[in-house]
Amino acid sequence: MTDQIRLKNVFSTALELPINEVDDELKYNADPRWDSTAHMILIAQLESEFDVMLDIDDIIDMSSFHQAKIILQKYNSDLSF
Amino acid sequence: MMLSGYGIELSLVTEDKIEKIRGWRNHPEIIDVMLDKNEISSEEQKAWFQSLKEKQHCLYLLISYKNEDIGMIYAQVGENLSLTMAKSISPGLYIAPDCKYKNSVLAFCPSLVFIDYLFKQGTCEELVAQVFEFNESAIRYNKMLGYQTVGVDEQGLLTMRLNRSDFEFAKKELSKILRF
Asked: What are the beta bridge partners of residue B3?
């Protein structure tokens, strides 16, 4: 499974979205399903799936699917999205 | 009074902030989920602010993060009681509608600090929140804080209760992510 698919799966599960709705346009304050609880679940699942421990500033900055890719690559440059 | 933790600060409302707060409170997104749906006038807001000094039964604190005001958190009990003497307290919170953090994990931080304070400041044994059934986001939020639903009335208003041990468990879990 590619890193891109793994990331999409995490977003789809955490935000309860169909996987085909997970793309670079997905961001909080734009999708009603992305609320503070979904954000909390998302971060927990991202840390588990990609085996990283994110800094709190990065957690708060993770405001879109696109941003998630950039932040995760900061922690693991081997990830390819 | 100033409370702080999890990267945020909670401070007493000052007069220079009351129009900003009124703007948040009158925003359709906020009014929609409030029990009191009346729009607040400037005069009413001034009168509310003046009355705060004498009131022992409620507490309103401004939430700030990195020196930016991002919302309000408050608590109240019956007018004949004081917060310190009450066994049951009703809290509430709103994040500014235009705040970029409103749907982020940061929204949990003021509640963690404030609920901790409410359980420690007097004789409080439980918190009671009322949330409209349609406000799924607030219900999920409260459940993450340890609240349990105890009933719903005929108008679709859910009553949720939180005791100290459930809160402590939820705080421990949320703190695994909110690593300030």
From this structure: B10
